[in-house]
Amino acid sequence: MKLEISASLNYRLPEPVDLMLQVEAANGGGQRVQRASLDLGAPEYMARVPAAAGVCEPVWLRAEGALRAEYRATVAVERPHADLAALAEMPLHRLPAEAIPYLNESRYCPSNKFHAFVERRFGEFEGGAKIARMRDWIESRFTYVAGTSDVDTGALDSFVERRGVCRDYAHVMIALARAAHIPARMASVYALGVEPMDFHAVAEVYLAGDWRMVDATGMTRPDECARICAGRDAADIAFLTAYREIQLVEQKVTVERA
Any idea where the Transglutaminase-like domain is (predicted)? Predict the structure, then answer.
């Protein structure tokens, strides 16, 4: 499947600001970027630095007055829609080095607090079957409500309140998977079917020797997503991080079949 992607960001910068931008679709991992352009105007400073997860290349900027970013891309998604329940869990001692950090707690995913629940609710299942049950449990019991979470909301808050947006669903999915000793991370994606259309967040779990996308909102599928970047949780995958106050003027994301 090919996706036509566009993202337009317009922010007002009251003073000189350092920013990190992560909006470009990654090349590899089940997808190929066939065409792409990124127009950032004329910032005071711009540099690319490889991300820690090795999935993307964040753009560091320093700008004043305004940030106007226009991204366009055509991405061929070759990621199969795998049956999660049929995927095997890897023994911990056989995990590759890249997956090991994603067994641990992170800022928004205090997985150690979920061990008892995971054992009680999903203990009879293994590997992908366990992940599929977790995904279905979250989708059936949570309500997608915009504006009910903020930058301080973590997986435990969302678990208690049973509501949130895509990042909250993903945080709970990641926390449950890690509590079951299955590596899990968070990915930002461009995805078909997202309502309202915006940057989207999904979980990725390490099963059968590869990272598998899991969208607990049920809005999209792995073969309909183009990954942007990946990290421990929302702190690592924000499309825009500003190190001083900035003001949103307008933002628009569109994803269509090519």
Answer: 158-218
Q: Does domain 84-236 have CATH number 3.10.620.30?
A: yes
List % helix, strand, coil for the chain (3-state, nearest 5).
25, 40, 35
Cβ pair 26, 229 in contact under 8 A: yes
Per domain, the residue ranges of the chain are: 2-77+239-257, 84-236
Give residue-wise pLDDT tens across range 94-104: 999 999 999 99
Residue 145 to residue 142: CA distance in whole angstroms: 9
- CA count, 13 A, side-chain hemisphere, 66: 9
Each residue's pLDDT tens digit, 142-197:
999 998 899 999 999 999 999 999 999 999 999 999 999 999 999 999 999 999 99
Q: Which of 48, 49, 52 lies closest to 97 in space, CA to CA?
A: 52
Instruction: Please name the fold of domain 2-77+239-257.
Output: Immunoglobulin-like (2.60.40)
Tokens of 62: 């320093």
Q: Cβ–Cβ contacts within 10 Å for residue 174, how many?
A: 31
The tens digit of pLDDT for each residue in 47-66 reads 998 877 778 889 999 999 99
Q: Sign of torsion, CA 145 212 24 229? A: positive
Contact 38, 69 (CB under 8 A): yes
Q: Which residue in the block uniquely carries the two structure tokens 């079949």?
A: 257
Biggest CA–CA distance in the chain, Å, is 57
pTM recorded for the entire structure: 0.95
